[in-house]
Amino acid sequence: MRTLHTHALPEVLMTAVPPTSFDPPSPFARGMAFAAYFLLLGALPTFGTSALLGLLIAYARRDGSGLLIRSHHRFQIRIFWVGLALVVAAMALGLSAWSHSWSLPFDPPPLRIERSPDAQTISYSPSPSAYHPQAAPAAFYSWSYKSPGAHLGLRAMLEGYAAMATILVAGLWGVFTPLWGLVRLASGRPIGHSAR
After folding, report:
1. What is the dihedral of CA 48, 52, 57, 58, to 10 degrees?
2. What's residue 55's pLDDT?
3. 163 near 94, Cβ under 8 Å?
4. Among 14, 30, 2, which Cα is nearest to 190's?
């Protein structure tokens, strides 16, 4: 019977068990992942410019990092592309709604000003001056304007509402997903299945 020496046991265990997938990352790698998340968070006030910088960091650092940081960089890449797709979809819907609303006939009725039947002539006396030598009559007039009604059409209205809903979803996506990633990174946890 072959015996295993005790001094060789740690070496056998180290070769038999693969190293953990989520070893603590270096401070630089962790700082770059944090920076990319903060740049993604600044996408709304900078009209996407900072998000583009965060995307470049995520692409540049994703393959040279451990699995923990790699999962966050892949998540950052997904945040950018999903957000961009939502913004493009909202713009396409808004443009379509605008073009459909302009293609419909629009003929507003004229504005009419009529003297109200209940109008009374009144007189007022401003303080005497060279500009107001005597009292002047005044009358009440009513303004009537007939609204053109719902001229937009169902398709244009639905596309407009869909564009507003999509841009709202894009805004929520652009704020809450980087925040969720920051919380996961700060606690040393990976992002789901994206660490493959």
Report:
1. 80
2. 95
3. yes
4. 30
